[in-house]
Amino acid sequence: MKLRDPWKTIIGSSWLFVIFFFTISCTQLNEVHRRRTLEARNNLKKQYVTMARSDPGILDSSSSLKLESKHYVLIFSEDIQKLKDYDSADERRGVGHGSLVYMESLYNFVHDIFGFEPSNQDVYGFEPNQKIRIVLHDFYNGSKHQAVTQTQSRTEYQNGEFIKKITGIQMDFPIEMYNQRPVKAHELAHAFTNIYLLPTWFAEGIAVLVEVEYAEGNEHGKVDLHDDLKLDLDGVNAAQSWRGHGSATLGPLTHWCYNYSYSIVSELKQRYGSQFYPNFFRLIEEDRLHQKLPGAMKDSFLVYYLSQSAGEDLIPFFQDLKFKVSKLSRNDILVMIQQMNLTITQ
């Protein structure tokens, strides 16, 4: 029978303890590292979702009734100055500064998604030194629940054709609506897309896409394009004749129109990738369609440019969804626009 050396036993046990302790320590360190990494990712995600960015360089007046950033002028209307949270320059400065940081980030975000920029003078005919005006109200048009984005323009006759010049973009918000992030995202999308005179359903679909997928809005959601299809009395997709939130003809279907329009816009983006919409708007810009159109873009015009961006004919896709559209060529579209403009001048 062999006797064990007690010192060897102690030393061996010590090494086992060291190895055990080292293993536990490494596990704990790995867990700490994992937690810190997860926390960093969550912070980054939070920053990404809230679109927090660095100070964009904001200027304000001594009374802080007007503040300016790179792309915006923020104005506090007379009625909002009577509210206790906005009745001093310091309060307005704090609110205005924070909101413009967010809005500048949102501007860049929407630009990255769609590739367009309202202040581009060469592409849009935007007059020099123009910025998007944001006007904050207590009530707007007698309501605390209606935000409106409007584009002002004038038409000039140049080289034998009519060209539209953008003279201003203004977003009017009751403060109750402005404090809702999805509403700001929705209206800024309109500030971008109004320039193109898009069909209402498509413009609203883009606005809801920005609102839902990039500002985490929960008022709208996707529907099944076939199972949830609704037709008008002529058998045409009801969304095609929609004229927006205030449309009397489709009042009961307004919520469905938002959801269905968003579902189409999202479906196309998913099918054809992240560059689908930037390419679509680039094609419109190359033909200066938005500057030549005398009124709202026809759905058949829209489908032509969507098809060009997709690299395949989308007429069957829209006809399957009961849209009334015709297959046109680029020349067909430009000739039709020219004829429409001539009709207006006669």
What's the structural blueprint in terms of helices and strands?
Layout: H1 6-50, E1 59-60, E2 66-68, E3 72-76, H2 89-114, H3 121-124, E4 132-137, E5 148-158, E6 161-174, H4 175-178, H5 181-193, H6 200-213, H7 254-272, H8 276-286, H9 289-292, H10 299-310, H11 315-320, H12 330-345
Parallel strand pairs: 3-4, 4-6
Antiparallel strand pairs: 1-2, 2-3, 5-6
What series of H and E elements makes up the topology? HEEEHHEEEHHHHHHHHH
State the oligomer. single chain
Query: Helix amount, in percent?
Result: 40-55%
Strand content: 5-15%
Major sheet size, sense and barrel closure: 6 strands, mixed
Distance between the termini: 121 Å
- The count of β-strands is 6
> Structural class given helices, strands, pairing?
alpha/beta
The overall average pLDDT, rounded, is: 82
**What's the gyration radius in Å?**
28 Å
What sort of overall outline do the alpha carbons produce when their principal axes are compared?
globular
Low-confidence stretches: 1-26, 36-54
Number of helices: 12
Order of strands across the biggest sheet?
Answer: 1-2-3-4-6-5
- As for the number of domains, it is 2
